[in-house]
Amino acid sequence: MNLPQKIFFTGVPGSRWSGIAQTIESIPGFNITDRSLERSFSHNGFTGHKGAYFGRLMEFEARLDSNYLNQAWAKDHGTKLIKSHDWAYSLDRLKDTFPNDWIMLVYRPDQASFDWWKQAGGFNINYPSYLAYQNDEIMRREISWQNQAILTFANDRNLTWDLFTSEWIQREFNYSIRVERTWPDIQVAILK
């Protein structure tokens, strides 16, 4: 299967989307030269965050500009998984701007996402920065809005939601990889 140059990847804080991203990036052909010690965060025995994240008050803004986005990677080869919570607010514009690239969505219910984000460190997470969310009340609201935007986009495009499994990866990426754990409250969808 031919992978695109970019996969725009989104999910709400606490959706466990970062673990899913790391699994996807282990498929041959992905560019992980955006990773560094400074762009990592571990918690509770989980690898947490790896690589560049884009968004408000983060290292990189969520701009729809290829030259800007490419700055996060040390080399310009392979498929780049471009992660941002903020993509949820511009999914239609993303597809219009980058019609040959894919969009991958992660959905997990609001409360479960908020609870996991808090357990992972909440505002004490040192990468990426969540300061734009200001407080728990705003974070709860943003999680709800982002989830609603993700669900609306998927519904409008007739996307199919599935559990994140080895079978799903085989079907969507034509690659066999073992998914360590499938979470029953986390769903994924992809627009190619």
In short:
The chain is α/β, with parallel strands linked by helices.
Furnish the topology, listing elements before pairings.
Elements: E1 6-10, H1 17-25, E2 40-43, E3 46-50, H2 66-70, E4 80-83, H3 91-97, E5 102-107, H4 110-120, H5 136-156, E6 162-163, H6 166-173, E7 187-191
Helix pairs in contact: 4-5
- Strands, total number: 7
Globally, the shape reads globular
Order of helices and strands: EHEEHEHEHHEHE
Structural class from helices and strands? alpha/beta
Count of the separate structural domains: 1
Written overview of the protein:
The protein has 192 residues and is α/β, with parallel strands linked by helices. The protein is built from 6 helices and 7 strands; from the N terminus they run E-H-E-E-H-E-H-E-H-H-E-H-E. It has a 5-stranded mixed sheet with strand order 4-1-5-7-6, with helices on both faces. Helix 4 packs across helix 5. The model has no long low-confidence stretch (mean pLDDT 94).
For the structure shown, list the relevant keywords.
single chain; 192 residues; alpha/beta; Rossmann fold; five-stranded mixed β-sheet; two-stranded antiparallel sheet; 6 helices; 7 strands
